[in-house]
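Reopening this ticket.

The earlier resolution said the output was attached, but the attachment link was broken on my side. Pasting everything inline this time so it's all in one place.
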Amino acid sequence: MFDLSAAGLKAVVKKVGNVSAPAKADKGIIGTGAVAWLKLDDNEAGQSQGLTSVYRVITAGGNPQACSVAGVGVQSVPYTTYYWFFG
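Inline output:
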């Protein structure tokens, strides 16, 4: 969910497509590689306002590191991206 209420917009979305980030994409500050680019569309539940699609593109970092401790299920990974919003 993207809440852009200051602009009167909101996107409640679901993933409908993805592609791998380009091989030369920035690997991020911890060097784990760029996460995939996504296409997200309205979830059709009538909750979005003024937006129908969101794209995550030009990613840097975001891929998780290998877990070295058994049972650890939460990991925070820094990444940077552009989100493009369409209505």
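Reporter confirms the inline version is readable. The chain has no helices and six strands. The radius of gyration is 15 Å.
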